[in-house]
Amino acid sequence: MAMNRSHTAAPALNDPVPLLAKSRSHKRALGQFFTPPALADFIALFFVRPQRDWRVIDAGAGVGALTLALVQRIVHQRPKPASFHVTACEIDPAAIESLRETLSTCADLCRGHNISFTAEVQTEDFISRTTAMLEQGLFAPALKTFNAAIVNPPYAKLRTGSPAHRRLQAVGIDVTNLYSGFLALLSRLLEADGEMVAIVPRSFCNGPYFRAFRRDFISRMALSRLHVFASRTAAFASESVLQENIILRAERASIPPDTVEISTSHGDLTDSVRTHLLPWTEVVQPDDGQCFIRLPASDQEHASLVRLAGMGQTIASLGLGVSTGKVVDFRARAHLRAEASSTDHPLFYPCHFAAGALRWPKPGGKKPNGLDVPASRRDLLVPLGVYVVVRRFSSKEEKKRIVASLIDPARLPAATSWLGIENHLNYYHREGRSLPLLLAKGLCAYLNWSVVDSYFRHFNGHTQVNATDLRSLPYPSASVLARIGAAVGAELPDQAELDLLVGGFCLPK
Q1: What are the φ and ψ backbone dihedral angles of 389, each rounded to 5 degrees?
Q2: Structural domain tally of the chain?
Q3: Is the alpha carbon torsion for 55, 58, 62, 65 positive or negative?
Q4: Is the separation of the CB atoms in 14 and 45 below 8 Å?
Q5: What is the three-class DSSP state of 30?
Q6: Which of 102, 206, 230, 304 is the S-S candidate for 454 at Cβ 3.0 to 4.6 Å?
Q7: Are 100 and 70 in contact (CB under 8 A)?
Q8: How does pLDDT run across 382-397, given as a tens digit for each residue?
Q9: Is residue 478 situated within a structural domain?
Q10: Distance from C-alpha of 282 to C-alpha of 219, rounded to nearest angstrom
Q11: CATH at residue 43
Q12: Cα–Cα distance between 118 and 88 in angstroms, integer?
């Protein structure tokens, strides 16, 4: 399958690997984001366990830059290794010739240091081949294991019901993206204490779609280091990749370490790398059923984690719920109205909120203002009341991920009895109905607090805010929220004043 094709590493012009030229559209079709040589060298540094006989799998080898970077490192290992064997998996015909030339360069490097080098290039689909071996059982003669894995896997989504998805499910792997499928398979090919180093999107660290993968991976692999690129473009600057990427190092072991090394770089790899150790229980909290992987990338984010750890309340203990807006506009197109009449229901998009307050209607805007639905489609509506909404998406340039606003019926026509909330908004409610006004105002202020936003970033590395993420936040008590609400005026104050106000109620004295 084309989208399973792997993609590691486009060498620089002065690199010993021949340059592989590809169009951007071709690479994106294959889920490819080439690893720059400097990044490949940095990734190779994550291996810390000396091996006498290296047996490495590079799944998604591309033109082989990751393998080359690792070889360039291990030839200087002390004590010197005796051998290095690599199984390089690649199905893209455009890459295989360059991959073989890279492996020839690796052989020359090892020969010059009296290290035996062997290589195998597998041109079969990695998912198909590996799942077929796993289905034969762990003791099948065809199952080859390794003591090291290095990988920059393809990032494409995995369509439910596709052949690759069915093959993975057949061996007990439930994933929604190719990169998590690759990691899950590699975790099964590693021997005890074998090392895995991978560069992947940070998106697997939270959210419901990766929950099964997180549980599976953590049960097999002990994460020992996680490197966070604070800039979205630092890892793949030439590829226009807007996801946050991380590098992970893990060992094949079921018992987690006491501490995890968290490192951060803010720009490219010429910047200094900051490192700190965190207890494993802060990275993966024992009582977290979602198995979120929390990565405070800065002292500020870690401080926010510590500050909010003692809040003690959850959304459930507050008797609240959070849901995604019910109106998916392209499915309700026949019911949308550009301008709301007296018989239409108000419809709210993100554009209808500013500075934490409702700004409806918005005449002449790009989004509809009204919803005209029959009684049979009441399922699209929520009862008139007070709600707190949070935008589901933010742009990469925005300073804050969590942007909360208040729906106050006092700002709506008196005749209104039902509301429409569009799908790009999450909304807080009490059993599907209105919140108490002071509690809602306090909740809105709390969610807009900079400390909460910083806390949120330590487990969320992308621009989407899921309802599951909001359920995972710690909250103050209902009485504290109400007191915050009483101190907030008709609209939220500016950020500095709001931070002081909320901090006065929520931070330890």
Answers
A1: -110, 150
A2: 2
A3: negative
A4: no
A5: coil
A6: 304
A7: no
A8: 999 999 999 998 755 5
A9: yes
A10: 17
A11: 3.40.50.150
A12: 11
For residue 364, what is the domain's CATH number? 3.90.220.20
Q: Which residues contact 394 (CB under 8 A, 6 or more apart)?
A: 400, 401, 403, 463, 465
Q: Taking CA 305 as the corner, what is the angle to CA 303 and CA 306, rounded to the nearest 5 degrees?
A: 65
pLDDT at 237 over 80: no
Structural contact between residues 313 and 477, judged by C-beta atoms closer than 8 angstroms: yes
Write the CB contacts of 63 (distance below 8 Å, at least 6 apart in sequence): 8, 9, 10, 11, 17, 18, 20, 95, 98, 99, 102
Q: Which residue has the tokens 């591309």?
A: 62
Cβ–Cβ under 8 Å, residues 437 and 485: yes
Backbone angles phi, psi at 200, to 5 degrees: -145, 165
φ, ψ for residue 251 (rounded to 5)? -115, 150
CB 315 within 8 A of CB 321: yes
**Residue 44 domain-assigned (yes or no):** yes
Looking at the structure, do residues 217 and 363 belong to the same domain, yes or no?
A: no
Which one, of 449, 395, 65, 461, lies nearest residue 262 by Cα?
A: 461
Range of the domain at 207: 32-223
On the question of pLDDT at 2 being above 70, the answer is: no
The string of pLDDT tens digits covering residues 60-78 is 999 999 999 999 999 999 9
CA distance 143 to 214: 24
Is the peptide bond between 508 and the residue preceding it cis, with omega within 30 degrees of 0?
no
> Would you give the DSSP letter of residue 255?
S
State the distance between the two ends of the chain, measured CA to CA, in whole angstroms.
Answer: 59
> Which pairs from 497-500 meet CB under 8 Å and 24+ separation?
498/445, 498/448, 498/449, 499/449, 499/450, 499/451
Asked whether the predicted pLDDT for residue 304 surpasses 80, the reply is no
Residue 358 near residue 348 (C-beta atoms within 8 A):
yes
Rg (CA), the chain: 26
- Residue-level pLDDT at 264: 85
Q: Which residues touch 423 (CB under 8 Å, ≥6 apart)?
A: 324, 325, 326, 327, 328, 329, 392
The residue behind tokens 């790899």 is 269
Q: Residue 87 and residue 294: Cα distance in Å, rounded?
A: 33
β-sheet bridge partners, residue 196: 149, 250
Q: CA-CA distance, 260 to 222, in Å (whole number)?
A: 9
CA separation, residue 76 to residues 50, 115, 132 (Å)? 11, 11, 37
Among 381, 383, 327, 389, residue whose Cα is nearest residue 358: 389
CA–CA gap between residue 488 and residue 271 (Å, rounded): 42
Q: Which of 77, 74, 68 is nearest to 101 (CA)?
A: 68
- Asked if the structure places residue 289 within a domain, the reply is no
